[in-house]
Structures are given as structure tokens and as C-alpha cells.
Amino acid sequence: MLAIERKNEILSILQKEQRVLVSELSQRYRVTEETIRRDLEKLEKEGFVKKTYGGAVLNKNISVDLPLKIREKTNRKEKQKIAQRVAELVEDGECIMLDSSSTSLMIAQELKKKKNLTVITNSVEVLIELSGSDGVQVISTGGILRDSSLSLVGRAAQEVLERYNVDKAILSCKGIDMEKGVTDSHEMEADVKVCMRSCARRTILAADSSKLGSVYFMKVMDLEAGDVLVTDKVPSKEWKAYFEKKGVSVITGE
């Protein structure tokens, strides 16, 4: 296994389990503990982890954004359920905006079954996924390419979005908090989401349950009456009461 492949796998484990031990990783990959320590040092310099005695923990800094390829491997079953429920909310013939995230890619896979659909997106992976789909017309925003998320951002992307009025905006996020609202880790990503929301008659927020109670660097929006949250499982009583008070519909994959 190449060093970069091992590092990516370690990040995937951290994303799921939040912590790793040098001794366990050494046995798992059949390399020396010193090799694993070097891997963790590199990940720490890149801002993804914090080294601890005997191992490392995931860096939960509110402005750190894990690479898309790592996020795509996390909570796949939950995201697949969310994608299926989101697709059920999209009607043939509609125009929608779809942002860039690991969940958005799965949603795009489900949308390929639709007819006469128009999808406006800033996601390079969604563009590729939907290319060649007979029932889907795809419009790219253009803009500045973010390598870590394979998304197109910046003023150029927003100017394209602002030309259109669509039926639905399907958005992802990093966190949902009762006081801070919907948040994301990157300013330019947040700006695109805000723009998409303003262009749509209805907003669908696709977020797995791990996002509830988390706060990240940039505020995207406050939830409002008429919004829809699609998540993987039924929220707690506290969160259910919060969504009911806000007038937000909650749809789960359970």
C-alpha cells in the first residue's frame, strides 16, 4: 500500500471513530510504529488531526474541511437513505439547484431516474455523474475550483446562479445548531449555498443526524417555515420540538 493510500485510510477511520492508536495502526498496516507516527505528523501538519499520547484524534476545528474522497467513505448507508428520500421530493420536469458534497453525489445518482429535469450545480462530481443522462439537463456554474471538495465557487459561480429561478435548492451542510443555525466550514462554499437558497421556491437540507448540534465556521442560513430537512433517523424529542416550532418538515430514512 502506498503511503498516501494509508494516510487516506487513517483519515477515514478517524472520521468514523474520532481517534486512532499508533500500535493498532501499525498492526493493521504491517508497518513500524515509527512509520505510523510519520503519517500522523503529516496529517497534523495538514490540519486534519491532533496527535495525542500513543495516537491521534480527529481535529474538530470549525474551519477544517476534510477532503471529499474521505467524506464519501463516511456514513455511506445513512447518506444513501437520505439521497433516496431527497429524490422522492423531486418531481419530473422541475428545475433544481444541487450543491457540492458527498451526499449530493449520491442524490445525483438517484436523480438520473427522473425525466425532463434541469440540474444547476457547482459540483464537478455531480456534473460528471449526470453527464449523458437522457432525462436530465445539466448546467454548470463555472467559477474557482476547490481541489479538496471538487466544487466551483466564487463570484463567477454566484453570478451564474443569480440568473435562474428554480423549484428547489438541495443543500448540504456541516452543522445544524438551535442557536447558530445551519453552518459550513468554508466561506466560499457557504456563499454558494446562500445564493442557491435565494433562487429557489423551496429549500431541502440533506444532512445526516451527526450534523445536529454541530457548529462550524460560516453561517449559511436560519431554518424557516416551509424548509425540509431530510436526515437518516428520527431526531430526539428536543430536536423534534425545535423543528416543529420552526415549521420545518423532517423526513427520515427510517
From TrEMBL:
This protein's record includes keyword Transcription: yes
PROSITE patterns listed in its UniProt record: HTH_DEOR_1, HTH_DEOR_2
GO molecular function, one term: DNA binding
Keyword list, A-Z: DNA-binding, Transcription, Transcription regulation
Span of domain HTH deoR-type: 3-58
InterPro entries on file: Carb_Metab_HTH_regulators, DeoR-like_C, DeoR_HTH, NagB/RpiA_transferase-like, Tscrpt_reg_HTH_DeoR_CS, WH-like_DNA-bd_sf, WH_DNA-bd_sf
Protein name according to UniProt: DeoR/GlpR transcriptional regulator
